[in-house]
Amino acid sequence: MLVKDIAEKLQAEIVNPGHHLNREIKGCYIGDLLSWVMSNAQEDDIWITIMSNVNVVAVATLTDVACVLLCENVDPDDNCLKRANEQGISILKTKLTAYEAAVKIGNLL
Amino acid sequence: MENANLKLHYNVDKKDFINAGEASSSVKKVLRKLGVNPECIRNLAIAMYEAEINMVIHANGGTIDVDISPECIHVVLSDSGPGIPDIQRAMQEGYSTAGDNVRELGFGAGMGLPNIKKYSDDLKITSEIGVGTTVEIKVNIPS
């Protein structure tokens, strides 16, 4: 399923469109500790997290995840948003918890 | 020259969490353009990012030299930080000396050095207290 379609199905807000809205999501990874995410998130995953600082963009770039989904209504901080914009990282935001979002995504993929 | 190695140099600024990861991202882009095997790129990106972040967290930044040959990617990260008192302990998963401010950013899980070891083919750490640390990472490129 494409990033933009997941956003619509989850009623998630697209906080930064980035370059990946038409990219196919193939899996999902949930995590907030960046070293774990670096090591375990896979290319084309949707990465669910409550981390919202600029380092999220670096990790998303290096792991090649399809997009970042901030859960529980977390807003990216200004540096994160600015860097995501520069690097073309797609960031979505939902009021759902990581679990609720993952259950829905699991049914959609 | 057909087989000349490609050499890259980066400076990592101290406590600069905003630009941390830039060097690793840049190397990753270069490796992609060179058509290097994706698994190698992933391994190198993980190992180098962890090492780059360590420099920012612990060592007031430093320098990174990357040497790309057809056989391997060799990265040397040098800093003039406080040094690592007990390298063996620092290599243990879960062991971290990072402060709360760093943990709040999502780092300090004690997975940095273990990840570097896991994703590199060769890792050499030399460290002297009060002088600095040099981390050498090698990722082989299968022929």
Give a description of the structure.
Chain A has helices at residues 3-9, 34-40, 55-63, 78-87, 98-108, and strands at 13-16, 27-30, 45-49, 67-70, 91-93. Chain A has 109 residues and is an alpha/beta fold. Chain A has a single domain (3-108), classed as HprK N-terminal domain-like (Udp-n-acetylmuramoylalanyl-d-glutamate--2,6- Diaminopimelate Ligase, Chain: A, domain 1, 3-Layer(aba) Sandwich). Chain A has a 5-stranded mixed beta sheet. In chain A, α2 (34-40) runs parallel beside α3 (55-63) and α3 packs parallel to α4. Chain B is of the alpha+beta class. A 5-stranded antiparallel beta sheet of chain B has the order 1-2-3-5-4, with helices on one face. Chain B is globular and about 45 Å long. The two termini of chain B are 19 Å apart. The interface between A and B is medium-sized, with 21 and 23 residues.
Please specify the SSE layout and strand pairing.
The complex is a heterodimer of chains A (109) and B (143).
Chain A (H helix, E strand, L loop, with lengths): L2 H7 L3 E4 L10 E4 L3 H7 L4 E5 L5 H9 L3 E4 L7 H10 L3 E3 L4 H11 L1
Parallel strand pairs in A: 2-3, 3-4, 4-5
Antiparallel strand pairs in A: 1-5
Chain B lengths: L5 E7 L9 H12 L4 H21 L3 E7 L3 E8 L7 H4 L9 H4 L8 H8 L2 E7 L3 E9 L3
Antiparallel strand pairs in B: 1-2, 2-3, 3-5, 4-5
